[in-house]
Amino acid sequence: MATPNPKNPIFVIQKHGARSLHYDFRLEDEEVLKSWAVPKGPSTNPANKQLALQTDDHALDYATFEGIIPEGQYGAGPVIVWDTGTFKNLKKNTSLAQSLQDGEATILLTGKKLKGGYALIKTNYQGKDNTWLLIKMNDEHADKERDITKELPDSVLSGKALEDII
Ligand code: MN
Fold first, then answer.
1. pLDDT tens across the length of the chain (166 residues)
2. How far is the CA of 159 from the centre of ligand 1 (A)?
3. Ligand 1 centroid vs 137 CA: distance in angstroms?
4. 160 C-beta neighbours (distance < 10 Å), count
5. Are 65 and 82 contacting, i.e. CB atoms less than 8 angstroms apart?
6. Ligand 1 centroid vs 74 CA: distance in angstroms?
7. Which of 25, 142, 164, 166 sits a CA distance of 20 to 30 A from 79?
8. HSE of 75, CA atoms in CB hemisphere, 13 A
9. Cβ atoms of 59 and 28 closer than 8 Å
10. Around Cβ 161, how many Cβ atoms within 10 Å?
């Protein structure tokens, strides 16, 4: 395996104990973090098509945020960095921005937990234009047996559990 190119953009997945627990999946693109809330979290099983609701772009420096979003603010609750690393756009000759515009992006993650190919597919489920699916691609990192959010629940930055953030 080649060493990651330091120019590769970053991804981050923040585990967020808001009103309902979800995982915020964020990809660096054109100086912002494109963002999706994934209620069930990412999977290593290609058969799991995980609903991913696109949310507002976040600033790049939010990628390392761990802490509490205070009561009264949107998304109040604890946040940990569940995984982070770099990614590669797998579509040759198409920018990530263009792929997202087209509603289908394929990326190769090099995280501490997640590795290999993932697809983001826009579905417009129930007529909503923010609904996507996050799907593990079939490759050597695909694993039907693992339940990675349960197996590896804690922060890759601090080692903290979500419950440790107070
Ligand atoms: Mn969130």
1. 555 445 789 999 999 999 999 999 999 999 999 999 999 999 999 999 999 999 999 999 999 999 999 999 999 999 999 999 999 999 999 999 999 999 999 999 999 999 999 999 999 777 788 999 999 999 999 999 999 999 999 999 999 999 999 8
2. 19
3. 24
4. 14
5. no
6. 9
7. 142
8. 14
9. no
10. 13
Task: Give bridge partners of residue 77 from the DSSP assignment.
Answer: 69
Beta carbons within 8 Å of 38's beta carbon, 6+ residues apart: 22, 23, 24, 25, 50, 51, 52, 53, 134
DSSP string, 64-100: G--EEEPTTSTT-EEEEEEEEEEEEE-STTS-HHHHH
Q: Is the pTM higher than 0.90?
A: yes
Q: Residue 150 has which token pair?
A: 């349960």
CA distance 64 to 91: 27
Distance CA 15, CA 132 (A): 18
- Which alpha helices (H) appear in 41-90, and where do they start and end? none
Q: How far is the CA of 18 from the centre of ligand 1 (A)?
A: 7
Count Cβ atoms below 10 Å from residue 59 Cβ, excluding itself: 10
Give which of 81, 78, 83, 82 is closest to 19, Cα–Cα: 78
Instruction: Kindly state the greatest CA–CA separation across the chain.
Output: 46
What is the number of H-type helices and E-type strands within the chain?
2, 9
The CA 136 to ligand 1 mean position distance, Å, reads 21
